[in-house]
Design a protein that fits this description.
Layout lengths: L5 E4 L1 H7 L7 H14 L3 E5 L5 H13 L4 E7 L2 H11 L5 E8 L2 H8 L3 H15 L6 E6 L6 H14 L3 E6 L6 H14 L7 E6 L6 H10 L4 E4 L13 H10 L1 H4 L10 H12 L20 H9 L27 H10 L9 H15 L4 H14 L5 E9 L7 E8 L2 E8 L3 H13 L4 E11 L6 E10 L2 E9 L2 H33 L2
Parallel strand pairs: 1-2, 1-8, 2-3, 3-4, 4-5, 5-6, 6-7, 7-8
Antiparallel strand pairs: 9-10, 10-11, 12-13, 13-14
Helix pairs in contact: 2-3, 2-12, 3-4, 6-7, 7-8, 8-9, 15-16, 17-18
The structure holds acetyl coenzyme *A and 3-methyl-2-oxobutanoic acid.
Protein name: 2-isopropylmalate synthase
Catalytic activity: 3-methyl-2-oxobutanoate + acetyl-CoA + H2O = (2S)-2-isopropylmalate + CoA + H(+)
Keywords: Amino-acid biosynthesis, Branched-chain amino acid biosynthesis, Cytoplasm, Leucine biosynthesis, Manganese, Metal-binding, Transferase
Length: about 525
């Protein structure tokens, strides 16, 4: 049996299911390209039947990603499989992942079928998916709570129907490692055609055991692990990609297993996912938390200074955290910025140096020292700016204080026109948001969440504001970054406005195409 464990990333599907606001197609593509650089074997880009937006982003990812297999999810119904096949067929090679629940709880209460009907549906779906591709994965949803004799029957039938990857999800994170490992052992020993398929596992973290269960499964013969960056996903999340990858790498001599993950890309990918998904990573999170490589107590610090491996089982460099001794201030030039970005893993073609440098100088003048995080944030905002130009902030003035009615004046460029409005509010942010609403002149947009975070170090840290707003039944997320809290909030809201503008444009184009096609 191969010692290679395939890493199947589902950040953009299971991970995205857990977000308060869905990602834009551009944000999904950014994450997909980062996952490709990270070296994931397969990436599940979405659930194409679920919305036209998801269909489009899966298609865009399938078109752009070349070094990982792109996959889409489909229920065991023909319409879902058609949507998946049609979105993915722009790629030379792709995978359709179809699934059906096999536990009695799900079969009886959710699907309202019999066990035999479920086998027939699964077989039909797999055969149908094979019309589109030779690479078909079948998941026995809630396998962790499925009767093992029946699970063996389903798996055998699925392989006979043409599935070459069989996924065993612990959908509700119920099992414990010995129990979950035993499920895989049973399948390996009792399913006669099991050698014709790769066993995959997809664990949820409801009891904090997703990584442990996945590890138990690969020790028993599973050769694909489904996971997400930072462990995001439904409820308590999924198996964390960075943890499983670093277990395989750090304990390779014990386990005798490897993956294709380029571990030096982990840190950067984790930050991108956290930022775009508006999902902070807890500081003591293994591998990617800000404390994961910090040593706080004297005895530990003494040990690490004498020999790093006294308290470090892997180096920060191995996950892409570089030690940086260069101070970046407004006295720094373009060379140091370029050099630092290169050390952080960005190629010159990833960004516009002049634009990033101009933003860097502005920031350095305001806060003195600029840190890696700031620089990456500037880069991120530079990348976001390209198609966000419909609404632009031209002027902002806000006043607040004790016994003063907070007020704000905002000038926005809206397309070709500049519009200025003044409003009052409960505080300066509320006043500025009210002024922006007056510029919009309609009530379709409702801000439902406002999250303020400080990024960087000390009192001059940057303010990062995540704004979530509802617009025409959908949720949009925006991020704003500035040294001033009100400005960061306003930028976050403008980010949202630009995304709603793009969504409106896409809807209009679609309606027009449908009119032309006579739908
Ligand atoms: C364990 C997981 O994470 S599975 C993935 C979960 N992800 C998502 O659900 C996100 C995307 N989902 C969606 O956009 C929508 O739920 C859709 C488009 C898939 C379906 O929407 P709707 O048609 O309105 O159905 P709704 O979601 O309310 O109900 C699900 C239906 O699918 C059925 N179903 C559930 N799983 C499957 C399956 N694997 N195969 C076939 N049918 C299934 C349910 O029994 C229910 O059928 P019913 O309407 O006959 O009772
Ligand atoms: C669709 C399957 C793989 C899933 O997400 C689950 O069972 O948790």
């Amino acid at each position: 049996m191969t010692n290679q464990v395939k890493i199947f990333d589902t950040t953009l599907r299971d991970g995205e299911q857990a977000l308060l606001a869905s990602l834009s197609a551009k944000e999904k593509l950014q994450i997909a390209l980062a996952l490709e650089r990270l070296g994931v074997d397969i990436m599940e880009a979405g659930f194409p039947v679920s919305s036209p937006g998801d269909f489009n982003s899966v298609q865009m990812i399938a078109r752009e990603v070349k070094n990982s297999i792109v996959c889409g999810l489909a229920r065991a119904v023909e319409a879902d499989i058609d949507a998946c096949g049609n979105a993915l067929k722009v790629a030379d090679q792709f995978r359709i992942h179809t699934f059906l629940a096999t536990s009695d709880i799900h079969i009886e209460h959710k699907l309202r079928k019999t066990r035999d009907q479920v086998i027939d549906m699964a077989v039909g779906a797999i055969k149908y998916a094979r019309r589109y591709t030779d690479d078909v994965e079948f998941s026995c949803e809630d396998a962790g709570r499925t009767d093992i004799d029946y699970l063996c029957r389903v798996v055998e039938a699925a392989i006979n129907a043409g599935a070459n990857t069989i996924n065993i999800p612990d959908t509700v994170g119920y099992t414990i490692p010995t129990e979950f490992g035993n499920i895989v052992t049973n399948l390996m020993n009792r399913v006669p055609n099991i050698d014709k398929a790769t066993i995959s596992v997809h664990c949820h973290n409801d009891l904090g055991l997703a990584v442990a269960n996945s590890l138990a499964a690969v020790e028993q013969g599973a050769r694909q692990v489904e996971c997400t960056m930072n462990g995001i996903g439904e409820r308590a999340g999924n198996t964390s990609l960075e943890e499983i990858a670093m277990i395989l790498q750090t304990r390779e001599s014990l386990l005798g297993l490897k993956s294709n993950i380029n571990s030096t890309e982990i840190h950067r990918t984790s930050k991108l996912v956290s930022q775009l998904c508006n999902m902070p990573v807890q500081s003591n999170k293994a591998i990617v938390g800000t404390n994961a490589f910090s040593h706080s107590s004297g005895i530990h610090q003494d040990g690490v200074l004498k020999a790093q491996n006294t308290y470090e089982i892997m180096t920060p460099e191995s996950v892409g955290i570089n030690k940086n001794n260069l101070n970046m201030t407004s006295r720094s030039g373009r060379h140091v910025i370029k050099h630092r970005l290169e050390e952080l893993g960005y190629k010159p073609e990833d960004y516009d140096l002049e634009a990033v440098y101009a933003a860097f100088l502005e920031l350095a003048d305001k806060k003195g020292q600029v840190y890696d995080y700031d620089l990456e944030a500037l880069l991120f905002f530079d990348q976001q700016k390209h198609d966000s130009a419909h609404y632009q902030l031209k002027y902002l003035h806000a006043t607040s204080g004790r016994e003063i009615v907070p007020s704000a004046t905002v000038t926005l460029q809206v397309g070709e026109e500049e519009v200025t409005k003044t409003a009052i509010g409960n505080g300066p942010v509320d006043a500025a948001f009210n002024a922006i609403m007056e510029v919009l002149g309609h009530q379709d947009l409702v801000v439902v969440d406002f999250k303020l975070d400080s990024k960087g170090e000390g009192a001059d840290a940057l303010a990062q504001v995540g704004v979530i707003a509802e617009y025409k039944g959908r949720r949009f997320h925006g991020i704003g970054l500035a040294t001033d809290i009100v400005e960061a909030g306003v930028k976050g809201l403008i980010f949202v406005l630009n995304n709603t503008y793009i969504a409106d444009q896409i809807d209009q184009q679609k309606n027009q195409q449908e009119r032309v096609a006579g739908v």
